[in-house]
């Protein structure tokens, strides 16, 4: 393992803020240990990376041994007219298809990065992770996709999910998550990672059985605490609010 950091900025004159990104590189034999310590492989970064690089952040996962499908969830998986195809790579035609789905997803959800709105709608072709692509078809039309990668036959990492929302009643987000959990269990994987857990948009991840989140010191099962943290993320809008919250953070229970 090699640790390194990008010390992006700090505000110390009138605040007590230091903004740094904790990164690492691991040998393949260390990947399982990396996941257990909250590291997430990066599929994109601000500058070109030399090989697979990991970031430590508020990660989320499901312990599949603790997951049980409810009757409602089983019913969701029995939806008619939905089929799933798994691709190891994307050819040009598939890339165009999922790029269009991604753009519609960003537009519908308004997930634009401030001041980079146009760039936010572009699905990046270059990636540091050799994903599998689960493409979801409704009545033979591709409507959604998920990036998925299995590490060491145990850890299932999910990357970008997107859905065109042309038929919002389909509930493809829930369907895709449940399908991938089912696929992971059938393939004898142990842990299913739902990526970062920040802001109110990530609260839904805690609805599933076996949920845990990484707080930088350990994996926690406290769903109430997780929800509070996500809500605080969304509430912060200024540096002053962040500075005040930093003091409050260590008292949140």
Fold and architecture overview:
With about 250 residues, the protein is an alpha+beta fold. About 30% of the residues lie in helices and about 30% in strands. The chain has seven helices and twelve strands. It has helices at about 30-35, 70-75, 90-110, 115-120, 170-185, 225-235, 240-250; strands at about 1-10, 15-25, 40, 55, 60-65, 80-85, 130-140, 140-150, 155-165, 190-195, 210-215, 220. The strands form two sheets. It has an eight-stranded mixed sheet with strand order 6-7-8-9-10-5-11-12. A four-stranded antiparallel sheet has the order 1-2-4-3. The protein starts with a strand and ends with a helix. The model has no long low-confidence stretch (mean pLDDT about 95).
Which band does the percent of strand residues land in? Answer: 25-35%
Task: Estimate the mean pLDDT confidence.
Answer: 95
What would you report as the Rg, rounded to the nearest angstrom?
19 Å
Count of DSSP-assigned helices: 7
SS class: alpha+beta
Biggest β-sheet strands, sense, barrel: 8 strands, mixed
> Roughly how many Å apart are the termini?
33 Å
The counted number of beta strands is 12
Secondary-structure element order, as H and E?
EEHEEEHEHHEEEHEEEHH
Strand neighbour order, sheet with most strands: 6-7-8-9-10-5-11-12
So what's the overall shape?
A: globular
Oligomeric state of the chains? Answer: single chain
Estimate the helix proportion, in percent: 25-40%
Poorly predicted runs of 5 or more residues: none
